[in-house]
């Protein structure tokens, strides 16, 4: 039985190996991160944010990105994304053989300076250079607009700002624009509004959403995004995640919990929900803490 039919298929991008781990007190080895990616691939995940090419002194959990990329399983139809913030990161990503480049542009200056050491305007200049170079290398590049729903330092993010950034992404040929609720303050009404603004500003780009469940609105936001026609939803196995530069930022929406909601709503993903739930529990043992996800505790329905 399915409760209703929203759309036939939604792609889930697994961000656990990057966003899921970057804020954890315990840093996992490249081998453990490769094992996490292998489990996700075996479960049917076909897009994975595998690594972040940032300074390991600032984010030690992401050290060894090249080693991780060297060890990931190369399976037909599986695409690996690498996060980059500057030209140096792009060069490392291209040398490592990523399939996609993801560039984060923060919508507020204060958060951008704390997170990346540059203003939003400076990051946009870097974005233009990164996008041009990625295109020259034949690698698709997308923009993630961070703090799209609110900033921990400046408060509300003006929706007009999101449209402006989406237009810059479109102008540089982004294949995808992601709206990220980095600190988990968004609600469905914002999802509807920002979705429509972003689609108008960047009609050629696919729309992706990245939600955190800090205030227990992440799953409602995700279903609203599907209703609005979002092509891709980010999620993290086990529900781990957070930003080391955002106060009180908690985990991403859990992949297994998202899959339960989507599958029961008649939305196919091609991913084995039970296998991801097992992966979330396994990841919790590596991190020495229980996974925030609920499906691993309650199980699916019907049993």
UniProtKB/TrEMBL annotation:
Keywords: Lyase, Metal-binding. Residues 10-277 form the Pyruvate carboxyltransferase domain. One of its GO terms (biological process) is ketone body biosynthetic process. GO terms for molecular function: hydroxymethylglutaryl-CoA lyase activity; metal ion binding. Gene3D superfamilies: Aldolase class I (3.20.20.70). Belongs to the HMG-CoA lyase family. NCBIfam families: PRK05692.1 (NF004283). This is Hydroxymethylglutaryl-CoA lyase. It comes from Actinocorallia herbida.
